[in-house]
Amino acid sequence: MNFNFYYGAASGSSRKALRQLEEPNIMINYATEKNKPWSGIENLFIDSGGYSFMLGKGEYGTTDRKYLEFVEKHQSKLFALRDYPCEPDVLEENGRTVRDHLEATTRKHRNLLGLLPEFDIQAQPVSVIQGWELEDYLEHLEMLKQHDLLTDYVAVGSVCRRNQDEKIQRIINEIHKRIGDRKLHAFGVKSNILRFSDMREKMDSADSNAFDMAARYSDNKVDGRGFQNCALEYLKFKKNINSMLSSNSKVSIDESQQRLEEVRSSGE
């Protein structure tokens, strides 16, 4: 199975931890202040940061051309087309409905794909299927198909901020049935979803920055050493992910622990 798990680099501590420990699969959030990738990343995925923009402004804070210029400059492996998340808090704050955001996502995809030929972008665009209930996702999937906006790599949005494993599995299963041979990414999907073999078989990639959040609330954190806390939580999180994906992890936890101790002793 060729499955890629991308680790989110949204804070200074997570960026430093992932860089120092040489994580090859990185997701950069365009909406964050620290959104510049570093050298040495093997597989870079640029996320448009829709959730952050919608909660803060209700709309994207830069033009679509600016976003594509950013993608062109950094030449990632994948980049998400801009979308409008359907989490209840986002909709409530902006006084919108799921249908509003499905239509807005479709318009944004059309505009971005229309502009794409004007840029020297080698990265693969990823259309985002949005919704909240299963019926919403299926409606949006058909909407994207009708407008010829479904890319070869597609993603499922708005599944990261909910503890509903069974519902998420149903959504991924039904979308997988309907996208043919396209690849499938799950944005911020809870790591325990990967415990299920049928989910691992249906998805080609997923991402999370849960380790960063865990570092902030860890009972074992070292005061004032955000980087070390984040590095340790990343190692624990990666061990868990690797154990679910394969018994032959690329980097064992013992090797990673040794690298962490080297970083600690260096004073960085």
Which whole number gives the mean pLDDT?
89
Structural class: alpha/beta
Order of helices and strands: EHEEHHEHHEHEHEHEHHH
**Count of DSSP-assigned helices:** 11
Quick description:
With 268 residues, this protein is of the alpha/beta class. The chain has helices spanning 12-20, 50-56, 64-74, 88-94, 98-115, 134-146, 165-178, 197-202, 210-217, 226-245, 253-266; strands at 4-8, 25-29, 43-47, 78-80, 124-129, 153-156, 183-186, 205-208. α5 (98-115) packs parallel to α6 (134-146).
How would you describe what is shown here?
By secondary structure, the chain is α/β, with parallel strands linked by helices. Helix content is 47%, strand content 13%. It contains 11 helices and 8 strands. Helix 5 (98-115) packs parallel to helix 6. The radius of gyration is 18 Å and the shape is globular. Mean pLDDT is 89; it is low at 247-251.
Short descriptors:
alpha/beta, single chain, 47% helix, 8-stranded parallel β-barrel, 8 strands, globular
What topology emerges from the helices and strands here?
Layout: E1 4-8, H1 12-20, E2 25-29, E3 43-47, H2 50-56, H3 64-74, E4 78-80, H4 88-94, H5 98-115, E5 124-129, H6 134-146, E6 153-156, H7 165-178, E7 183-186, H8 197-202, E8 205-208, H9 210-217, H10 226-245, H11 253-266
Parallel strand pairs: 1-2, 1-8, 2-3, 3-4, 4-5, 5-6, 6-7, 7-8
